[in-house]
Amino acid sequence: MRPVVGIICEYDPFHRGHQHQFELIRQRLPDALILCLMSGCFTQRGMPAMHQPGARAQAALCAGADLVLELPCAFAVRDAEHFALGGVELLTALGFVTHLSFGAEDDDLPMLQSAARLMESPTAAFEAFLRQALDEGLSFAAAQGEALGKCLGHPERWSRPNNILALCYLRALLRLGSPILPLPVHREGDYHAAALKENLWPSASGVRQALLAGNQQAADEACGYPLPRSPLCRPDALDLLLLYKLRTALPEKLAQLPDCTEGLEHRLKACAAQADSRQTLLSLLKTRRYAYARLNRLCAHALLDMDSQLLAQNTRPTYARLLGLRRDASKQTSLLRHSGLPIIAKAADGNPDDPLYQLDDRAYELWALGAGLPSGLMYRQKIAVF
Which of 4, 9, 271, 346 is most exposed, with the fewest beta carbons within 10 Å of its own? Predict the structure, then answer.
């Protein structure tokens, strides 16, 4: 059986580091097909992607991907644990993915698996260290890192962003009993580095900063290809809409947002009344207890009208949308025909009564609004082909 390697990704935007992952995969599995399961219009950090999904899928195909599917928004805009769980569950449900590749600053698989098993089946010592860190006011993610460091040593490892996400993927594989084999690759470079020329492996945040500063040439060089000149959805494009929704929402409505707990809805509403942008809002909301990423996702949930009940009732992907494939795609199309999960090639073929599909539609509408494009983007988007 020909290996099919899944990558759960965002590609906001696709750059040389992502292409390097393709190269490392094919060094180990030369005849593998690479399937990218990519976030759509909104990303895991709670922001709209700068380029629309079709353009990002095209970049991945040009760099060597064989197939690009879209991860539904209900899983794409979540904390790392649920982002990974939704992605792994979708790849497993397809029935033909053999491996899951992900980057990690420390790609020692046995070490990562030991940590994942400890988090899935915590010892009394781990739980005590976790409670102690939470009592000290750390965010949950930071508290987990502290507990892992005390149980397994090397505390610096457990705060590195790609290691954290790698653990989430491994935990998802364990929790689901998935037959997919993990295939970690070493993540080189600084995940948050803003400088581009000094870094062989650029960060997506550095490329985005260059684009926002109008330095298209530097962004193109960092990515290794000309980025799309199509309309961008800038990070602040939906700020006023966000503030309007927060200011006019009832506190009990805000309390239904995912991860809006411990009375955070009152703080959210009070800070929105004072803020003039998302950035100002986040600076007013931020505390040691509430991580910036969590608060940023909370803003996205408010924009998208997501609520915890919807997510609790729709915990599994019910479909995958096809974003792109290669021209010589006979093998890929054969796999898709025998998929264990419905694959939607045309948006009009989706189930309009499916709450997850309705959420995807809202995400595309919001993205189009932020980019200054007409309504109906999800239905106009063509399958990318290379």
Answer: 346
264-271: average pLDDT: 95
Task: Please give the sequence-ordered ranges of beta strands (E in DSSP) within the chain, or none if there are none.
Answer: 4-9, 33-39, 67-71, 99-104, 181-186, 320-325, 343-344, 384-385
Tell me how far apart the alpha carbons of residues 232 and 185 are, in angstroms, rounded to a whole number.
Answer: 31
Q: What is the CA 150 to chain-centroid distance, rounded?
A: 29
What's the maximum distance between 2 C-alpha atoms anywhere in the chain? 59
- Residues comprising the chain, all counted: 386
Block residue for tokens 């040439």: 217
363: left (phi over 0), alpha (psi -120 to 50) or beta: alpha
Q: How many CB atoms lie within 10 A of CB 287?
A: 11
Task: Please compute, for residue 56, the number of CA atoms within 13 A of its CA located in the half-sphere on the CB side.
Answer: 27
Q: How far is CA 177 from CA 108, 174, 356, 363, in A?
A: 21, 5, 24, 31
Distance between CA atoms of residues 83 and 92, nearest Å: 14
How far is the CA of 189 from the CAs of 8, 19, 84, 201, in angstroms? Answer: 19, 14, 22, 5
Q: Model's pTM, two decimal places?
A: 0.94
- Cβ 13 vs Cβ 59: under 8 Å: yes
The two tokens of residue 316 are 């599994």
* Per-residue pLDDT tens over the stretch 288-314: 778 899 999 999 999 999 999 999 999
Contact criterion met (CB below 8 Å) for 273 and 86:
no
